[in-house]
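hey m, so remember when u said the tokens were messed up on ur end? i reran from scratch. heres the input so u can diff it against urs
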Amino acid sequence: MTDGTPARSGREAVDAVVFDCDGVLVDSEVVYIDAELEYLAGAGVRVERAAYVEEYLGLAPAEWRMRLSAEMLARTGHPPAAGFFAALDAFVLRAFEARLAPLPGARAAVAGLDLVRCVASSTPLERLTWKLRRTGLLDLFAPHVFSAEMVPRGKPAPDLFLHAAAALGIVPQRCAVVEDSVNGVRAARAAGMRVIGFTAGAHCLDGHDGTLMAAGAETVVDAFADLRAAIDGLPCDIALDDVSPTRD
């Protein structure tokens, strides 16, 4: 754990909070989406923004590349050219250097939690650490910063969240996940965790709260100021075997 505070006991619903990074702690999803859609349009592939958010947000990089390659093949008749994804990544990184910022209230809300906390993100570990350090949030979580690189399957599979729970020494059903993406919500539910949808990111469109609820979130908040109440409001009468941690 990061702050020396022991896990709570008693009737609280959870003992740990697992944060996604992009679109939850840092306002990066809007940067990703803007840059990726611009780059794809330049390659002759125009994707509707809402569909892109629902389909691609939160995916592990390998899964994202596989799905996007298939879509490009279907739309253009040929796969991405050699070096396409490396060039796209460089394009996105330049956008990050200009625009990346923490979500308003993130640091105060996280620092104020009397719970074990960690980050579990699809982002490769080196880039994930860079984002958290650049936005002044790394010290709140280190060393409990987990990347999809650490597990066989990324989101929407449950592997990353199960890995995080094991590393924290807390059963999955006593963890609450804060997620902004459908794929992340599905991964958390498949891991047997409680899920709070988060819609404060600039990328969240009207109706995104309903989309997250439909994917399995128990509640949705649109600001860090409301997170503590959402955590406290999770019902605590769920049995440990009510949800299988391996269900897809």
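this time it looks ok to me. The beta strands are 16-19, 116-121, 145-147, 175-179, 194-198, 219-221. if urs says something different then somethings off w ur setup not the seq
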